[in-house]
Amino acid sequence: MKRYIKYYLTSLIVILTTITSCQDYNSPYDVNWPVPTIESVSTYNALFSSTITLTGNFTKLKEVYFGNVVGEDINVALDGKSLTVKVPRTMSIEGSVIKVTNEYNQSFQTIQKFIPIVPSTSVTEVSSIQVGSTFMVKGTNVDLLTEVKVNGILVSVVSKSLNAMVLSVSGLDLKAGMLVDVSFKSLANNDIPTMEKVNVIYPFISYNEVVIWDFEDGVNPYIGEGTNSIASGTVLGKQEKYFTLRGPGYGWDKATGIIPSTKTPDYSLLVNPYLTFAVRTPAGSAGYFQLETPGSWRHFGYGFDTAGQWVIISVPLKEGWEGKGWDPAFIPQLTFKAGNAGVKQDIDIAYVKITEGKYTGSQNIGDPLVGSTKPSKIVVMDFDNASAWPDIKNGSDVVGSLNFRKNEIAPFYGNGFFTYVDNGTPSGWGAYWGESISTNMQSSQLSVFSDPYLSLAFNSIKGSPQYLIVRMYQYNNQLVLIQKLFPDTDGKWKTSQFSLFNTDMENWSEKTTPLGLHYSTLKRLNKDEPIDKIEIIVGRNDKSTIGISIDEVVITEGRRY
Fold this sequence. Notes:
Blueprint lengths: L1 H20 L15 E5 L3 E3 L3 E7 L3 E6 L2 E2 L1 E5 L5 E5 L9 E7 L4 E11 L4 E5 L2 E2 L3 E7 L4 E6 L2 E2 L1 E6 L2 E5 L10 E8 L8 E7 L3 E2 L2 E5 L9 E2 L2 E9 L2 E11 L8 E3 L13 E8 L9 E4 L2 E3 L12 E6 L4 E3 L9 E3 L8 E13 L11 E3 L7 E4 L10 E3 L2 E5 L16 E4 L15 E4 L11 E9 L6 E8 L4 E7 L8 E6 L6 E2 L6 H6 L11 E9 L7 E11 L4
Parallel strand pairs: 2-9, 11-18
Antiparallel strand pairs: 1-3, 3-7, 4-5, 4-8, 6-7, 8-9, 10-12, 12-16, 13-14, 13-17, 15-16, 17-18, 19-32, 20-31, 21-24, 22-23, 23-31, 24-30, 25-28, 25-31, 26-27, 26-30, 27-29, 33-44, 34-35, 35-36, 36-44, 37-43, 38-41, 38-44, 39-40, 39-43, 40-42
């Protein structure tokens, strides 16, 4: 009898132990969870952003991965037997297997790798470069640029979208007025021409913003518990619509509800993006939400209690993320967990947006944030306005014109250039004295520069050295100083530059009066006096044929080239 009792007790213990061991619901062996399958892939080779189709079992699908990168715009058929997905542009170009996962943490992956086709990149526009700040590159597939250099120095990416990229030149030794070259390399390794002679300017940033939710359309996007609606009222002195929620709070245990979105905000044009929202909780109550994106979340103090007042919270967009951390492709969702507000979830939200810098409520779109009224260059002669530069004759012969050599060379900068040709009149070292080009400079803002440089570009005909005289006037044309140049560029554009106030020059002032005699002793222009006129005279270099094109005569702070 004791033996039977002992056997019975032993069997009972084994049964109970077996039952107890099966209570771990996290074990994959306890339940026959549905497993996704991939039966076919429409293609294993397609362009980035192309849509491909998978067939199989996609019940309760969670994600589609290309290697470790989540596919985009996933759409599962109602019967769960097929789906479409866009090839992510950040997947490995070496190829990756396709993997599907479901809500039961089950997965299936292909044996064959998907090999993406990388589209070529073209650059159509490069903006002026702001000193110490940023510039923009536009074109097709510019998000696939792997390298951008300014004068051979690699610069970093601030933000990018499909057809635009913002880059930083912080730390580069650039000065306003310089011309620089911008070069590129792309993921497709296709040839992208260098953008030459890009202007460097003083920085200017204007206020801008990207609205995620502002509720002005009256649509209530909230999903969840509690009384909620879109209301109207005064928000920080402005009449606005806002979302209002009065509901139960569950601390950190669960969410009262969510406000979802379906796409990544395009903040690529913002230099210093901040996450900004206006929030209010009723007096004597509280509420809270956190911002989420798949795999990451961001807190804002773990509970709001504003005592019935609207407040603005504005924090750097890329900082403070937990979980996987900051994701540039984030898809924002407001998750209304009460947090430290406990059982209360009473909250109003006027807007959630990404702003250019910290938002105080006073900025309007287009407001200058930083910048300068100081010009990056003062144009002396640029020849883009044809009416300002008519043909010049020596006797009956046209010797200077915008039309000469138009079919032989391209402009150095802009749309036009001015060319002198030979009619045989000037003798050796003689010049077209009465056929010069000049600009009145009395109204120019030279005083804004501490060391202004005069720069010009020239292109001489092949095999023929040239002779140029740059003549400058001060003190009502009584002080006359010159710089002589001897271009020999053999059909190519080259440049010359000199400091207007820190260069010793040849003096051509008249000496017929006591004051003129004084001026004739000077070698430099006076930086505290305006320049009356700048003139360019073309002459013959010994016995060479006259043939010279002139372009982009400008004044900059320091050297332009």
